[in-house]
């Protein structure tokens, strides 16, 4: 695979003030819809897979499909592990060619989070792989990852500075009021906190749980220094909505190409919409 390290993509975004999508893949149709959209808009791309998605597809299939996608495109692509849960899981992805990993030790104490993240940074950087870590906890549910509303803790700016200095991570995911999965009610983001964090750490900032966040709020986030925006649920929803619509029209449909293909087109359109909001078009 000729993947690029995620840091390469994000450092340019940080320098020039735009954001790149961290778009989750769940199957072949997601992968193609996402890559084709980025290609059409000449945008750099961060493909990411959660541990649940890797279990669903199989590691060899993830690596093999992404390899095929990369061979067939000229845009810079990074392959990133979303919410790596342990040192072992992260190493498994690095061995299988991922160019970036997230270690999510945000449930541990601050000191333990630093210790584990540092260990992952040393291992990953020694082979040119980028690292994203998280401080504070992002609410909601994503695969195995579940944080109840009351346990979602916003990122403390001073701690963020101490954390990035101590660990040497390439990107930091911050908790400012977004949630994974589907929003209950109107999400409210703490932009002031984001602004303070960005000015203090002066490096790529990641926003998780961006599905369901309005275009205006996403744009404001990018203006205040967000450089990577994770989207999964939005694509799952448009894919499924399209398939439901097709079956409502014709319940006798049986050829998967006749409904997965249009589902893939729906993902592609949604990805293009996100890329235009994030400002990464023509940056490849
Ligand atoms: Zn996340």
Give the uncertain stretches in residue-range form. none
Strands, count: 11
How many H/I helices? Answer: 11
Shape: globular
The mean pLDDT is 94
Radius of gyration: 18 Å
Which percent range fits the helix content? 40-55%
Report how far apart the termini are.
18 Å
Beta-strand share of residues: 15-25%
Q: Give, in order, the helices and strands.
A: HEHEHHEHEHEEEHEEHEHEHH
Throw out a few tags for this protein.
284 residues, alpha/beta, 49% helix, globular, binds zinc ion
Short description:
The protein is an alpha/beta fold.
Write up this protein.
The protein is an alpha/beta fold and 284 residues long. Helix content is 49%, strand content 18%. The chain is built from eleven helices and eleven strands. It has helices at 6-16, 28-40, 51-57, 59-71, 87-95, 110-125, 157-167, 191-201, 215-223, 233-249, 256-278, and strands spanning 20-24, 45-50, 77-84, 100-103, 130-135, 139-142, 145-147, 171-174, 179-180, 205-207, 226-231. An eight-stranded parallel beta barrel has the order 1-2-3-4-5-8-10-11, surrounded by ten helices. Helix 5 runs parallel beside helix 6 (110-125) and helix 6 (110-125) packs parallel to helix 7. The longest helix is centred in the C-terminal third of the chain and has 23 residues, at 256-278. The two termini are 18 Å apart. The mean pLDDT is 94. The chain binds zinc ion. Residues 83, 138, 142, 180, 208, 230 line the site of zinc ion.
